[in-house]
Structure formats: structure tokens, C-alpha cells
Amino acid sequence: NERHSYHALGKVSNMRGTLAWSAKLDEAKVVRIRSLRASGMKLADLANMFAISSATACQVSKRDTWAHVL
């Protein structure tokens, strides 16, 4: 199925944000993460708060991911 091909075979999806089946965040959480990070919150604290990895928190805050969210 389509979901398997993206996960197991490494196909690249053009689905962004909450349209991606594996999304753990939504636009509101992304905005909140960026705001908290800009105010000085540590990545580890953000990761714990939103149940994501520190690497994901870093990527979101630097707009490496979720770049379409302003």
C-alpha cells in the first residue's frame, strides 16, 4: 500500500505538515515550539514537553522542517 512504500521503501512524500501520516505535531504546536525556543527554552525541555526528540525540536525551531508554517 501507499503508506508502506513511503515508510519501508524510502519514497519521498510531497505531503506536508499534518497531512503526513507520521506527523506528531500540528501547526499550532510548531508555532509554540518556535516561540518557546526564541524565548530561550532548551531543546531537551521542548522535546519532553511535546513528546518529540531533541533533534526534531531543533529542526522545527530552525525551520529545517515545517518550513511552510509561519
Structure notes:
The chain is mostly helical. It is built from four helices and no strands. It has helices at 2-9, 27-38, 43-50, 54-61. The model has no long low-confidence stretch (mean pLDDT 86).
What secondary-structure arrangement, pairings included, does this model have?
Blueprint: H1 2-9, H2 27-38, H3 43-50, H4 54-61
Helix pairs in contact: 3-4
| Total E-strand runs | 0
Largest sheet: none
How many H/I helical runs?
4
The pLDDT mean sits at 86
User: Low-confidence parts lasting 5 or more residues at pLDDT below 50?
Assistant: none
Tell me the radius of gyration.
Answer: 13 Å
Short structural summary:
This protein is mainly α and 70 residues long. Helices cover 51% and strands 0% of the residues.
Brief descriptors of the model:
51% helix, 70 residues, 4 helices, mainly alpha, elongated
